[in-house]
Amino acid sequence: MEPTKKCSIISWLEEYWPVSTPFLAVYVTVLLVLFVLKENFALFLIWLQTPVYWVHQFEEYVYPGGFVEFFNRKVLGSKREDWPLTKTHALWINVPIIFVAFPLSAILAGLVDVSIGVWTAYFSILNALSHVGMFFKHGYNPGLVASALLNIPVSAYTVYYFATSYPLSLGTHVASFLVALAIQGTLMVWGLKFMKAKAEQSF
User: Fold this and answer.
1) How confident is the model at residue 203 (pLDDT cuts 50, 70, 90)?
2) Residues 58, 22: contact at Cβ < 8 Å?
3) Surface-to-core class of residue 164, CB atoms within 10 Å of its CB (0-12 exposed, 13-18 middle, 19+ buried)
4) Using CA atoms, how far apart are residues 32 and 151, in angstroms rounded to an integer?
5) With the C-alpha atoms ordered 145, 175, 92, 110, is the resulting torsion angle positive or negative?
6) What is the DSSP letter of 71?
7) Dihedral Cα 130, 96, 35, 145, nearest 10 deg
8) pTM of this prediction?
9) Can you tell me the distance from the alpha carbon of 172 to that of 189, in angstroms, rounded to the nearest whole number?
10) pLDDT tier, 196 (very low <50, low <70, confident <90, very high otherwise)
């Protein structure tokens, strides 16, 4: 009975995890404005990457949603909207990075050193640029509006702030960028190579 119970929980998460994003984004943003903004603006910017990205995920998977279907049909050229990229993949890509790694990095930025969280801004920019790139080839894609209006402006300002008003070393910026690039690059190689091959095998 236990495996069945576990599967039902995972299935529920696969279906409904994105629904939490607008509520979490509003709640966390309010807390940041009330308790972090005036006390530590640098840390505020690091923490802000998380609710901004939750808005991004809301557009991708809730309203208007349809990123999985878009990616399968338009990018991978699959005949099916639900394969090879699945809701399971969406869960295990998005939750570990944005629900775990982003907040954990912000916590460590506050407890250890603010530089630990800078990679999140670089990742937000790189991922947003991938949506912009898809726009030029495929038109609107879920996540594009948030990328253009939130991810890129907020994250670019964060990088600018840490390069000017709260200057960090060049090595910190390079390391942060490389971490972000490694994560985004892995996702793109997996999506555009491995998943593309699986889609082609269905023909």
Assistant:
1) low
2) yes
3) exposed
4) 17
5) negative
6) I
7) 20
8) 0.94
9) 25
10) confident
Closest CA to 51 of 33, 68, 64: 33
d(CA 98, CA 78): 27
Q: What are the φ and ψ backbone dihedral angles of 128, each rounded to 5 degrees?
A: -65, -40
Distance CA 107, CA 124 (A): 18
Spell out the residues 6+ positions from residue 25 whose beta carbon is closer than 8 angstroms to its own: 51, 52, 54, 55, 58
Give the count of beta carbons closer than 10 Å to the beta carbon of residue 170. 9
Look up residue 124 and give its amino acid: S
Go through the chain and tell me how many residues it has: 203
Q: What is the mean pLDDT of residues 105-113?
A: 98
Decide if pLDDT at 5 tops 70: no
pLDDT at res. 2: 44
Please determine, for residue 6, whether its predicted confidence score (pLDDT) is greater than 80: no
Please state the φ and ψ torsions of residue 143, each to the nearest 5 degrees: 110, -15
